[in-house]
Structure formats: structure tokens, C-alpha cells
Amino acid sequence: MGPSTALANPPPRMTESYLANLPTDLLARAAAIRLAVFDVDGTLTDGRLHYGEDGRETKVFHVHDGLGLKRLQANGVQVAIITARISHPVALRAEELDIAHVYQGQGDKRACLRELLEALNLTPAQAAFVGDDLPDLAPMRLAGLAVAVANAHPWLAAQAHWQTRHRGGEGAVREVCDLILLAQGKAEAERERWQ
Questions:
Q1: Residue whose C-alpha is closest to residue 80's, from 139, 156, 158
Q2: pLDDT value at 192 more than 90
Q3: Hey, what's the signal peptide range on this chain (predicted)?
């Protein structure tokens, strides 16, 4: 394929192929988001727990998710992590991505989300919560946009406003970031930024 062929056949626009034909209600919910909150295990990771011989835990994060979170923040949407477990790799990844709101060891994620909303002077309708399993159900019910990853527990998926195509730890978080940017009219500018 020569250069002229490549220019004659540009890749499809994000709105034409990726996240196309989304319900109006979903886009309205995503347009209102000022805070996107994510679970870790099973959402930012694939849910598997890896332990070394020394007992230390390691986690694997997807680079696509990381860039999505950075671009979300660059476009004025705050990002938070709320997780029931405590893990040093989570703190390291959050620091790398400049995520200021990191809450580990949270047995009551809904209460944590409510306190965060109050601290940021935001309403529940301005928050998205993304999760994969039963501890995420209560904060999802509070949030204006509830998202379940593709491999979420069925009870969670049934309560979600939207379910990603990708599994947790495999690009699901990026889908959510792209959805919010699309709904807020920033997707095309983001796409053009990288050309």
C-alpha cells in the first residue's frame, strides 16, 4: 500500500465505528460526568491476583487504560480509584497517572464515593462508577453513570447503564474514558491531537 492509498482511505472516525449508535440517555449521562471512579481488581486489572515467592503482590495494568485516564483528566474530568483491597502496585500506578483521589481498603465503597462527592462539591449525577463485582453494586447505584466491564458478575451487569465490550484489565477502562469524551464532544479533538 503506497502513501497515496493510505491518504485516500483514512481510518474511520471514532463516531462512525467505535462507540457508534449509543442510546441518547447513555450519552446524556456521560455528558454530565465530572468524576470517573474505578474499582481496581477486575476493572483496572483482569482480576487475577499474582503473588511472588516472597509473598509480594504484583498487578498488571493495561497501557490503553492508562492513556485513557490521562486524557480524561486532561479534558477536565477528575479520576478516582476506590478499592476494597490495599496494594502497593495500585498506589504506584495511581501516582504514575497523576490520580489524586485514591482510596484503598474501603469496605463501604458507596460511603467513600458519597464522601468524595461532598468533598468535591459534586452531585451523584456528575459521577461515573465502573466495576465488576458485588462490592461495586452499591456505588454504581449511587452514580449517575454505572458501568460494568464485559466480564462483570451478571447481577452487576443487570444494574449497569452500560457494559463495555472489553474485559477488565483488557481495555474496558479505555472504553469508558472514550465514551465520556465522545459524549462531551471532545473525542474528535482528541483524535486529531494524535495525528
A1: 139
A2: no
A3: none
Rounded to an integer, the average pLDDT of 8-25 is: 68
Q: What is the mean pLDDT of residues 43-67?
A: 91
Cβ(147)–Cβ(130) below 8 Å: yes
Task: Please give the Cα distance from 76 to 71 (Å, whole number).
Answer: 9
Helix axes 63-74, 172-183, angle to 10 degrees: 20
Q: Would you give the end-to-end CA distance of the chain in angstroms?
A: 19
DSSP for residue 177: H
The single-letter DSSP state of residue 29 is: H
Is the separation of the CB atoms in 163 and 148 below 8 Å? yes
In this prediction, residues 36-58 reach a mean pLDDT of 91
Which residues, in sequence order, are bridge partners of residue 127?
A: 35
pLDDT score of 4 more than 50? no
Bridge partner residues of 103 (DSSP): 82
